[in-house]
Amino acid sequence: MPHLRHSFFRFIKGTMLYKLLEAQRRFLEIPHNYSLDVAVYQGGYGSGKTFAGSLLGILLALKFPGVRGLVGAQTYTLVRDTTLQTYFEHLDNFGFEEGRDYEWSSTLQKLTFKNGSEILFRHFDEPNKLKSLNLGFVEIEEMSDVPYDTFKMILGRMRQRVKKIWENFTYRIFGHTNPEMQRGWIYKTFVENTAPNYRFITAPTTQNIYLPDGFCEELKKIYDEKYYNIFVLAQNGEYNSGLVIKDFTDDNVKNIKYQPEMDLHISCDFNVDPMCWVFAHKTDEKVFYFDEIAMENTTTAKACEEFCRRYPAHKGKVIVNGDASGDNRSCTSEYTNYVIIKKKLLQYGYDAEIQIKAFNPPIKNRIMAFNAKVRSADGETCLFVDKKCEKLLYNIHNLKYKEGSSRIDIPTYQQIKQSKELKFLSHPIDAASYLVDFYWPISL
């Protein structure tokens, strides 16, 4: 689409000249003459996905006066904290000023340009609220997290009336995403059964020449091999049939002897039914889960008493890790969960301390940290689980992602009613991953 590329250079003349990566250039330009172009930019971390998407949104708004665009993601937090900020960065780089070249309405969550074009910023959690929109283009952040039904609904919104002054106008839907955890709807739609006006652009992190020296090498050290292949090399493919925990083998299952002289870590998930805690020893680089608590319809105090019953003579320090939200007071107690635990442990004579984060990281960060300990990209195993941890092992072998997405498949109430065991999915792995993320976090 040469006319778009030429316009791009005219818009930024005298301010900043971008030198695009090859994948970004192919993403922006249209190689066909269909009335609708649908493109996905699938790349590794740091491959320039959001940069390219927000750049294209601004270029379309400037090229076609009065066009209406929509920028969205499954959650508004992602739109606000990632995509919108990149839009503002581009506008600053162009030398545009708010009030002179564009207006931002925080109430309407809308950018309005001097030429009458506007870009709406929304979440897709309630797609029916978008049905009244007639649009010229849509940008989708983290497209693999958006359900296929939402994508189909967006296709039906591409019907803004074309103005006579819009030379060579094409309706455009463009998304960017990390590779899917398995071959979901994006792979099926854009690779297996693609239409001639559907485009799939892949961009490994390694091709971004603007990243700091050694960036990819550092990622290879901390990611397990398959995560590296997917989230750095941007490779497609089945990923352990959708399991959340990858590459866990018999090598990770050990008879782990409890050591009363060593520090003992309790890592907590405070769900009431069930409440799940794991107990572990650790070294500088390895973690050893040797026991667990998975109690139904209980309280923090009762779970703590169960720990004290099992390990009454522990001589080392007891370090409590876990869910950061456990440090918040509840409506039923003047104490936080961690205050309750520490008071109970001190009452029983333990040398106890609390070590938790100020807030919980995204669950995908915790899962990546956990998988990196299961087996790193260099093949090293640093996480071990005793057979006594039945519920944790059950999670490792059964917790999956929702088909066609990167969201964990949490059982519904109806499913749990049909199979009680399902209530133990997610909570034990939450407890275990809080510990790993605290001591060996992965920053994205």
Topology at a glance:
Elements: H1 2-12, H2 22-28, E1 36-43, H3 49-63, E2 68-73, H4 76-93, E3 102-105, E4 110-113, E5 118-123, E6 137-141, H5 148-155, E7 171-177, H6 185-192, E8 198-203, H7 215-222, H8 225-231, E9 264-269, E10 275-282, E11 287-295, H9 300-310, E12 318-322, H10 337-347, E13 352-354, H11 363-374, E14 383-385, H12 390-398, H13 413-418, H14 427-439
Key traits:
Rossmann fold; alpha/beta; 14 helices; 6-stranded mixed sheet; 444 residues; Nucleotidyltransferase, domain 5; 8-stranded mixed sheet
Folded structure, characterized:
The chain is an alpha/beta fold and 444 residues long. The protein has two domains: 2-213, P-loop containing nucleotide triphosphate hydrolases (Rossmann fold, 3-Layer(aba) Sandwich); 250-439, 2-Layer Sandwich (Nucleotidyltransferase, domain 5), CATH 3.30.420. 32% of the residues lie in helices and 18% in strands. The protein has 14 helices and 14 strands. Strands 3-4-5-2-6-7-1-8 form an eight-stranded mixed sheet, sandwiched between helices. It has a six-stranded mixed sheet with strand order 13-12-9-10-11-14. A hairpin with a 4-residue loop joins strand 3 and strand 4. The longest helix has 18 residues, at 76-93.
